[in-house]
Specification:
Blueprint: E1 4-7, E2 12-15, H1 24-33, H2 36-53, H3 60-75
Antiparallel strand pairs: 1-2
Helix pairs in contact: 2-3
Length: 89
């Protein structure tokens, strides 16, 4: 059965995540306030961030940068800026 939540990112009701995908308090907030659709949007941005910056997910500093971008993207309405990336028109 799907959960319907008010998605902070989309600013509307939408299907919630099936389970908590991220640890800790931030993970609980994502589970309660971010929809599946918004999470998919974030995953696309995260992949671009990791690839363009050659981030290593074993590196704590890199993971922290990604987490900061995730919070800005999902909760603060800021798009992810990737150095050197030009979106296709």
């Amino acid at each position: 059965m799907s959960r319907i939540i008010y998605c902070h990112f989309l600013k509307e009701e939408s299907q919630g995540l099936d389970y908590q995908l991220y640890p800790g308090e931030l993970g609980k907030r994502i589970y309660n306030e971010i929809s599946k659709l918004a999470w998919q949007e974030w995953l696309k941005k995260q992949t671009m961030l990791i690839n363009e910056n050659k981030f290593n997910m074993m590196n704590l500093e890199h993971r922290k940068k990604i987490e900061n971008e995730m919070v800005k993207f999902l909760f603060e309405g800021e798009d992810v800026v990737i150095d050197g990336y030009k979106p296709e028109n």
